[in-house]
Fold these 2 entries.
Entry 1:
Amino acid sequence: MKSTTIALILAVLIGAIALTQSAFTVDQTEKAIVIQLGRPVSDKALGPGLHFKLPLVQNVVYFDARILDFDAKPEEITTTDKKYMNVDSYSKWKIIDPLTFYTKVRTIQGAQARLDDIVRSQLRVALGRYTLIEVVSHKRQEIMEAVTTRSKELLLPYGIEVVDVRIKRTDLPAENARAIFGRMKAERERQAKQYRSEGREASAKIKAQADKERSIILADADKKSKIVRGEGDALATKIYADALGQSPEFYSFTRSLEAYTKGFKDNSRFILTPKSPFLQYMQ
Amino acid sequence: MNWDWDKLQKQQQGRPGGGKPPSFDDFQEQFDKFKGFKLPGWKLILPLIIVLWIASGFYIVEPDEVGVVKQFGEFNRITTAGPNYHIPYPVESVVTPKVTQIRRIEFGFRSTGRARSQAFQQGMSREVPEEALMLTGDENIVSVQFIVQYMIKDAKEYLFNVYDPTKTIVHAGEAAMREIIGKGKIDDALTTGKQEIQVQTRDLMQEILDSYQTGISIVAVQMQNVHPPEQVVDAFKDVASAREDKSRFINEAEAYQRDILPKARGEASRIINAAQAYKESKVRQAEGEASRFLAVLKEYNKAKDITRRRLYLEAMEGILQNPEIEKLIMSDEALKKSIPYLPLGQLPRQNAVAPKAKQ
């Protein structure tokens, strides 16, 4: 009885050890291949789940099946209008054929070296066809699509799928940036000047208009004043004429006397003859 | 936010009701113990261990989480909030990412003392020029600081499709914002176009992330601080002050206008009133004079001769009573005999007049 118990325990133990040595799981984020003496056993990679292999002679190599990053170093690139720019790009890629990948590049580092070469040269070629402003502005999408497509083709033989190559930053070397700053400054200064001179222009117009209106107002007043004064003079003349016309002779007489009174003041010398009516009673 | 499976499993083992799941090593140990020491009551211990192992399959999914269950490493099912059960280790395992939490990534600046992706916090921030400076479509350079808020929309994609989701969002954000800024003009970014840029960037980021199947939803892109580069900021400020100068000049001119025109109108009314006053006084004066004349005339007509004489004499009297006037009486003969010599030089202002009243 005792020996059977021990045998049972042994059997369970051996079974358990065999199980741990042959069963293996592949995570949802991975793919795996089984290697026997350095060669892949099947030509198909294993997806996630529970798998079995022969203990001891076979071992498992896991590959990350997720989209991986490759962040390239910024590259100085010459555009077709002979301008330099630093282009910083990133690539998203994944291992789609672990078997090919394992035989051709083996590791992630190896893959990144390949990516670096290919993406870099493709970017150079593509960017060299456009001007700086096209790269920055409206041809960006086009360039990225072209680079992605070409890199995809070139990296497929390594079991790598390039999902996307994207330009992150397009910066200018210091001296170009300085030139741009200079231009920006000049543009803004021009704008500021324009605003100020527009302001002065508008101000001068308003003032001139105001001065004109003032002159017109005063001239109108002056005209009206003259008319009114003239009316006054005319009316007065008419009143005088109406009254004095009743006896011009008497008017002449009284007015002459008044004039003499006012006219002969100081420093006058009167020579009167005795015949003067004034002296008639002195004889 | 890289999922570290070991850590997760540790977390899980730390869950209430989890208990320590037994491993094969534990079993072997147990067996060694049975063999070596013949522990009393091992028949009790073994079922207890099995019960504990079964109990370790219970787990709670919080309201803001989903449970993602893997069976032998393969994705199996999504579980929702509440208590759930999974077949214990090593068959199934579970992770519970928070799917309603909105996370935040900063671009072009860092809130002081915080990592790049942290919960929102007000406070000081520091610019990161190499991230913030970008080229615009009209060949200008502008500094853009913005944040991206995102959440997990598909836990399965988020957990299994992309190696580093956060880095992927950072990449997509930088690329998208630069692409949109590169299409526009600097003034759009600085002033009125912000809203449009935010919307376009968000859409482009979403498109990029969906193409990678990241399971991430971009909630919002918010531009925090957009300004011209340090080197040219003064010139930009001067434009603003020039704009103010312009309106100041115009205001001053309008003030001048509002000042002189009423004055002119006042002056005009003064002139016109003076003219009217002149007219009225002239007319009244004439009327006065006329009526005086007519009154005198009326009396004169009654006694012409005597009135004439009276008026004449009064006038002469008035003239001659001035002591300053020289009077000289000469007979006609003497006048005729005297040489008409007029020493005008001696008497600068002398009039020799012999008035003869008409009879």
Entry 2:
Amino acid sequence: MIKKNKRKEWKVLLLFLLPSLIFYALFMVVPVIMGMSYSFTDWNGLNPDYQFVGLKNFVDALTRDKYFLDSMKFTIKYVVVMVTLTNVIGLLLAVFIDKRIKTKNMFRTIFFLPNMISFIIGAYIWQFIFRKVLGELARHNLLGFLDQPWLGNPNFSFWAIVMMSLWTSVGYVMVIYIAALQGVPAEYKEAAKVDGASGLQVFFKVTLPMIMHAVSINLFLMLNNSFKAFDQIYGLTGGGPGRSTQVMSLNVYEEAFSSYYRYGYANAKAIILFLFVLVITLIQLKFTRRKEIKV
Amino acid sequence: MMKKNVVNSVQVFMLLIMSVFFLFPIYIAVINAFKTDGEMARSILSLPQVLSFHNFITAFRKLDFLRTTFNTFIIASLSVIGIVITSSMAAYKITTSKLPAARFFYLLFVASMLIPFHSIMISLTRTAINLGVKGSLLGTVTIYIGLGVNMAIFLYSGFVKTIPMELEEAAVIDGCGPFRVYWHIIFPLLKPITATIAILDVLWIWNDFLLPLLMITNSKNYTLILSANKFFGKYEADWTSVLAGLLMTSLPLVIFYLIFQKHIVKGITAGSVKG
């Protein structure tokens, strides 16, 4: 009797799992396994014979491939700047907006709206700003310092990418902070004020510890999104000038889909990208989870 | 009291400066989309002298706006329906089944959430070719379902745990089969999280660029974003109509946001708290 029940439960479980499992197996599990197995070969993607080369692709990518190593450094720089700036600006905006009941919705809409525009479209709109508009502003004696070779000089194009990315991402981070701030009971803040705490003290000693879960979420989100940034950079600089603003995802894309065709090698780089993201997000999660307060 | 006023003014000032930074690109794109090339060359910063819709008409045609919007709509809606139904079914049984294997399946789905799309895009493209789904609208839908179920199952599982299961047991005793229990009792109860998942997935799929770029080569099946990308590539120098095209491309989702603002904000917050 028990055995029969168990068999029936298996049957029901598999029946309910089957639809999602089919799609998931075909377009997630198979590509993951395929990518991993080819990363150990020298397959060029066409030729029927290829050799198992062990870790050679990985070693080559991490020691010899100058462009890949540069893209790694660039990615780290971009991630650090983006995670910091989106969170600082997003939190500031959220705090400023939160108490202004009348204008709250208007400001939230303004800051969030760019997030609704596809990153690639946003990047093209910003190309227009950088190529045409900022120089024109300077010619009218407005904000002359903005007249720079934004997309032609590696130092400037880094900040051009950051500016455009902030424009699209800050609103998302801010929305999450606003929701968290609403969860902080007003009595706590008032009690601290009655005890003589200044505005800044209230923020750092009461508010911030109570929204630590949102900080953790936003760090995780931005860390993940910035590591995966592709559209913004593809659309704004295409990785240039030269290859100076190439992120890892763009480097993998180019390796796989343009010019030379080293299929196994490209897959090895794709896996390095994954391991990179994995290690850093796990470290981050461990680090911030400890600081959260359960409300 | 003085100090409080100063702090307040500083905050308002900063909010206004930031508002300018956020609105300026959209403003400057809008005013130039109404100008002729000559007028733009003369004065980028000033308002257009006459409102001409010429650029929008050009962009409408070059983008194949109706067809590509329709394609995007089909891909996004079918994918979301597919993700919602398959994931809610799976999550329901994964969470309520007493079999230890259920936990294994949960981990199998959720583990891939950390894998960046760029890490599998190479072999995904090849898999799509091998399976003959590359490039067609329905094929693209199947790929989105495959990529989207992991997060949806994760979010659904968290939610199913909060539903009291007495209802289900009562229905089973009344002789309801498992599929009817799911469809008539469980699925309606999942409505709040279904809304969250649908919103997050619409935002993702509607604005997605890389997957259509890799998969869709036939211009008949272009999505709106893909079409805008090709348009930009071809007419880069013709800024006025390019801007009109970029604005038109963004319009559907901006309208979607303005209508469903409350739900979208709620969905993003709920989705991120659980994610």
